[in-house]
Amino acid sequence: MTKVLIIEDDNIFGDMLSLYLIEEQYDVVRVASAGEGLRILKEYSPQVILLDLMLPDTEGTNACSLIREYTTIPIIVISTETKVSERIQSLTEGADDYMVKPFSMQELKARIEAILRRTTAAPAQTVSPTAASPATEDRKLTLDLARRLLINNGTEIETTYSEFEIMKLLFNNPSKVFSREELINAIRGIDSYINERAIDVHITNLRKKIEANPKEPQYIKTVWGVGYKFMK
Q: Largest CB tally within 10 Å, which of 24, 54, 62, 183?
C-alpha cells in the first residue's frame, strides 16, 4: 500500500485529502507542521509527501527546502498561491510538482501515480556504483539507479526526483539534444504543471552538483535555441 505523508495545518482541507486518499487505498498520515513532518519521516517512510507551504512553523517555500534537506522523497506542493514565481521558487527549493488549491482530487491521484511510476521503475534497472553497465557509467560520473544517486569521482550526490530523471534521460542518450519541452514531458507528463524556466533551474542545480566549473560545464551542454545535451 502506497504511503502518503500530508503536511497540512488546515484541518478541513487536510481531513478531506486524507479521507479521499484512504478511500483510494492509500496509507495516509497527516501532520500539521513541518517540524512534525520531519519527526515522522523516518518512522513512517512515506513514498510521496503532500506539502502545504503555509505552515505555522515555516514561511512559504522555506518548508520545501527544509523537508528537502532531509529526504529525496518526491514532494508535491499544495498551495493557494497562484503566482508563477512562487511555483518556480518551490521547484528550485526541491519540489517535484505544484498544485494550486482548490484542485481536482482525481488529478491529485493521477499526479501521485505518475510520480510513483517513475520512482518505482528504477529497481528494475538496478546498477551498483561498482558494477555499473556502460549505459549508466562514465569514467568519472555514475548513476546508481537503485539508490537514485549521482556518483561523481566517488562522491555520492543526492538529487531531487526531477533532477535525477533529467540526468538519467540525458546520461543514457549521450550527445542527443533534448528540447525543454521533451524534458518537461519526461519528468512530469504532458498534463502536469511545469514550465521551461523550471527546467533551466533544474539544469543549473545539476551543474552545481556535478560540474567542476558550473559556468563552463563539461557534461551538460546548452544547445542555444534548442535545449540541452550530455557529453561524455
A: 183
In the chain, where are the structural domains located? 3-120, 122-230
Please state which CATH number belongs to domain 3-120.
Answer: 3.40.50.2300
Phi, psi of 5 (to 5 degrees): -100, 120
Q: Which residues contact 232 (CB under 8 A, 6 or more apart)?
A: 138, 174, 175
Identify the H or E element spanning 147: none
**Confidence (pTM):** 0.59
d(CA 89, CA 94): 9
Structure confidence by residue, pLDDT tens digits, 10-68: 999 999 999 999 999 999 999 999 989 999 988 898 999 999 988 888 876 678 888 88
Rounded Cα distance, 72 and 149, in Å = 10
Contact between residue 64 and residue 86 where contact means Cβ atoms under 8 Å apart: no
Only one residue has cell 505523508, namely 5
Q: Closest Cα partner for 58 from 5, 4, 8?
A: 8
Q: What pLDDT score was predicted for residue 123?
A: 38
In CATH terms, are 3-120 and 122-230 the same topology? no
Torsions phi, psi for 220 (to 5 deg): -95, 110
Closest CA to 15 of 2, 32, 1, 3: 32
pLDDT at site 46: 92
